[in-house]
Amino acid sequence: MTAVATAAAIVPERLYTHHDGRGATPHRSNPAVIHRELTTLDVQPGMNVAEFGTGSGYSGALLAELVGPTGTVTSLDIDDYLVKWANLIHHECGLDNIRCHVADGTSGFPERAPYDRIVAWCTPPLLPKAWMDQVIDGGLIVAPLPIAPVPNMTVVAKIRVSGGEPVVEQVFTGGYIEATTSPKTDLDLPGRWVDWENRVPGASWISIAWREEDDYLHTGARTALARLLKDGHTEPYEGGEIDWPSWRTFAAALADPQLTMAGLSADLWAIGHSTPTTAAVVQQDGTIVADSPNSRSLGVLQGWLDAWEAAGRPAPETYRPALVRCDDEGGAGWRMRLSL
Fold this sequence. Notes:
Elements: H1 3-10, H2 13-17, E1 18-19, E2 23-24, H3 31-41, E3 48-52, H4 58-67, E4 72-77, H5 80-92, E5 98-102, E6 115-120, E7 127-128, H6 129-133, E8 135-146, E9 154-162, E10 165-173, E11 196-198, E12 204-208, H7 219-229, E13 233-236, H8 244-253, E14 259-265, E15 268-274, E16 279-283, E17 287-290, H9 296-310, E18 320-328, E19 331-339
Parallel strand pairs: 3-4, 3-6, 4-5, 6-8
Antiparallel strand pairs: 1-2, 7-19, 8-9, 9-10, 11-12, 12-14, 13-17, 14-15, 15-16, 16-17, 18-19
Helix pairs in contact: 1-4
């Protein structure tokens, strides 16, 4: 039995996710995915570990078991309600080697650094320099990172710190809620990079990679969303069921400045192309929505889909990752980019 499986057999998962006093928390990830990330993190007894995104507290309890009585775990979350309850449940379980704090995890937690390992359950806008500064040389970071400047375009990366620089050792499918500076109440709406949102008559939103070209009234984003919603042209995607993780990774790797993501209804996300005058997206259910059957954006989107099929619908793990150093309005750190 692996160390993570052993820890999972000890930690009472349901106590954390459905505590009688707190009730069920929606701020939790699939346990199988948590186990995968912690296995990748390669935590050893006695280590000093930080996690960003306390959530229900379940992942922190697993880490506390993995580091053992000689190790320490620091858990951060922006939501003080989650932090208070996680600390209490850890106490009820007799775990005294973990402490949860209210803090913005993108800044790390220098008070208890340096860390042997860092794991994140929320997605920062880039790999923060603060994390690199707080990890020992040779240490590991496992975190979701954006691969395009629109929501829900992420991979989970295993990153080794070597000589003060990040080295990507592995990427795989995955992603978590966006890191935000205040607690997130609407879990259906992305926490970052939403350029226009409608709440009536129904919820809808759009994110455009070309937002820097838009005006302060968000005219381009508003117009693109309106074109998709009002009397838009629809057609089925002829290529069959869409492998969403593969398609969104391919679309992100194109690095096209007109890349667009939208939510035209409450439960369907869409990816495509837009300009100030045209828009076309393909939804998760395979429905293509465009402003007209002769839309320029529709032609571009169909070209992208053809290229994706020609590439064999590549899995996210097959891409070559690269971290690009930057220091801009998104903060200091590294942006993840993928190529085939």
